[in-house]
Amino acid sequence: MTFEEILNELTKISDSLENGNLSLEEGIEIYNKGLELSQKAISILKESKGKITLLNDELGKLADMAFEVETND
Questions:
Q1: Which residues contact 10 (CB under 8 A, 6 or more apart)?
Q2: How far is CA 15 from CA 9, 20, 26, 28, 41, in A?
Q3: What does pTM read for this prediction?
Q4: What is the dihedral of CA 60, 64, 66, 67, to 10 degrees?
């Protein structure tokens, strides 16, 4: 599932729980599904943060190298 799909599903779950038209068992089941999905979303966010940090580090190195080349000319 993509992050966006997870968010859409979590919204549906939240709406269902807020409506209060579920039995206790259904509510618990859907709540647990929401917990699982939220953990997946957190995992995706952490992974994305790591990728962005890595890209920013690489971009910073490239900018430093470009600055060094300009000052050496």
A1: 34, 37, 38, 41
A2: 10, 9, 13, 14, 18
A3: 0.74
A4: 130
Cβ–Cβ under 8 Å, residues 42 and 34: no
CA 45 – CA 40 distance, rounded (Å):
9
Which residue has 């269902």 as its token pair? 16
Query: Which position has the higher pLDDT, 27 or 64?
Result: 27
- Map out the domains of the chain as residue ranges: 3-72
DSSP for 51-72 reads HHHHHHHHHHHHHHHHHHHHHH
* Residue of 66, 9, 70 lying closest to 36 (CA atoms): 9
